[in-house]
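Title: Prediction job returns without error message
Component: structure pipeline
Severity: low
Priority: P3
Assignee: unassigned

Description:
Job completed but the reporter wants confirmation the result is attached to the right record. Sequence as submitted:
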Amino acid sequence: MRFEREYFLRDALEVGPEILGHYLVREIDGKIIRTIIAEVEAYVGPDDKGAHTYKNKRTARTEPMFSEGGHAYVYLIYGMYNCINIVCQQEGKPEALLLRAVEPLNEFDILFSNRSPVKNIHSLSNGPGKLCSALQIDRTFSGYDLINGKELYLEKNKNRGDIGIVRAKRIGIDYAEEYKDKLWRFYIKNNKFISKK
């Protein structure tokens, strides 16, 4: 069951812990790959010194961050790793959730092939670059509609129930001054697919 657009027209800090345990789904060559969202980080520009949209900085790269909630923002780090974010908030308010880790549920042969030579299932998607590699997500998906999309979309987990949620500091943003200490990273307690620092 798909999410309504309205679900993502809210604060990233509100959506962040709530999206954990729901599905990120990827269709590749007719195969439906379902994963559970296990870890996210919130970025709430223009005030957040860790966000690409700090001070409302608007570039061709960050333009999807200013779109309506429920779209994807994909960017490249270190010149080689793609990272996907779920855009939140109303159009013009640049907030997003970086997907840091997902727990794969099926089609492991495709995921292992995409992440070769990785052999450990827990290393398939336990990091933002790893999950994008495993699911073949690149910058062509930046701006993609995750509500109505066919190849990549978000889906409700009707069996989610209550899950333990941990709040922690975000990773790798020492440049963000006082914002590096914000507890804006959320992950499922004791999940074995959480990213490593």
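Comment from assignee: result matches the submitted record. The first strand starts at residue 23 and ends at 28.
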